[in-house]
Records
---
Amino acid sequence: MIMDTHFLSFGFLYFDPMYFVFVGPAFLLAMLAQARVKTAFAKWSAVPCRRGWTGAEVARRVCELGGAHDVQIEMANGYLSDHYDPRERVLRLSSENYHGRSVAAAAIAAHEAGHAIQHAVNYPWLSLRSAYVPVASLGSWLSFPMLLAGGLLSIPILIQAGICLFGGVVFFQIITWPVEFNASSRAKSVLRESGLISDSEEMRGVESVLGAAAMTYVAATIQSLLTLLYYLWRSGLLGGQRN
């Protein structure tokens, strides 16, 4: 197979309308997902939980009930920068969720506690994702430079390497799906069974916030997958242009 060595598509040296044929729909989906997150978070941030617990208190309680002991709860910088670090066993919540007493704060805090519970019970998909982080980081840093260098220098092996590295990033995003959906499922289960969320209206808010957040992962993965397909097509590896 002869590869197109003039791999200078959109994002490299010139505008290629076919890029938007492949990826345009995913861009729109990503924009809709982000808008949905902001709308849901804004709406349910204005609704206080009847129990009156802060996000930090909810996270601590969900961790304890789920068997994730000795997890440190810290405040993180940045807007919606909430995450769980399995290497340090630290759950970090953004300021608005750490101190917040809203349904949205409880939902996000419980979701991150869901990751801590996954870690405590050795959830296999979390273990796989954690082990794969170095590979995904390498792909994220090097895929574009290799694609660019391969196109500029007309070196097919660099283009192939860049595509493979980007494929590794896509794979990481795919294996993130079960991790995120399972964390939300665990969070909702503990919130419901423990009484931390007191009625169906509050639970509806939790589901709205977590459902909107889940859609951002789905949209990002679809966008990356379509970008990968475009790279394969543009390089001639998927029935695209060839010299």
Note: The CA atoms of residues 61 and 196 lie 9 Å apart.
---
Amino acid sequence: MEDMRFVRTTLILILTALIISACGGNSSSATPIETLKAYSIAVKKKDVAMMKKLLSAASMQIHEQEAKAQNVSVDEIILRDTLFPPDQRVFGYRNEKIEGDKATVEVKNNFDGYDVIYLVKEDGIWKIDKKGTSDQILDQVEEDQKKLDDIINQQREQTNQDVNQMDGNQNTNTNQNTNTNPDVPLPGDPNNPLPPSNDPNNPDNPDVPQDNIGNPKTQPQG
């Protein structure tokens, strides 16, 4: 157990020394993953000086603006707005991608997920680019909002189509219920051959008994 602790401590010291030498201008530059490992150690130790060395110029500018707006020191902002929580014990690094002077690394978080961390190379040193991370988050939010707007517009168009279809069906039913059969004239039509309802010979006249219909004796005398 003591041997494992000794090995772990030795590795941490070697890694930290590598970062310090790289920041001091040594040609042996740390990789993006090594930068993140050194940063996680600095966060646990609350080593603000080391954290500053591992942050890009744009990241430092963001922290300075935040400190000025909140009327606090830059060190307080750096200690508070860390990439990793100080109590995080398990770290996993994967998918290190380097494209020129920019790089990304996926770092495991406390929720068994992975966060994408952006880095930039400044003066030959890989440094954490919080601005790049923030820009990526904003781009993702905008993309998600656009997708949501597209879904809402599609649902609105579908609703309008459904309403128009319902209106069309109602108009069709109304036209079908209207008497358009030329062989069946409408009541009151001057060309209607049906006798009016008050005609005594009309079997539909309720005032004339059915037995008297057609009986000449029951017809009114002239």
Note: The longest strand covers residues 114-122.
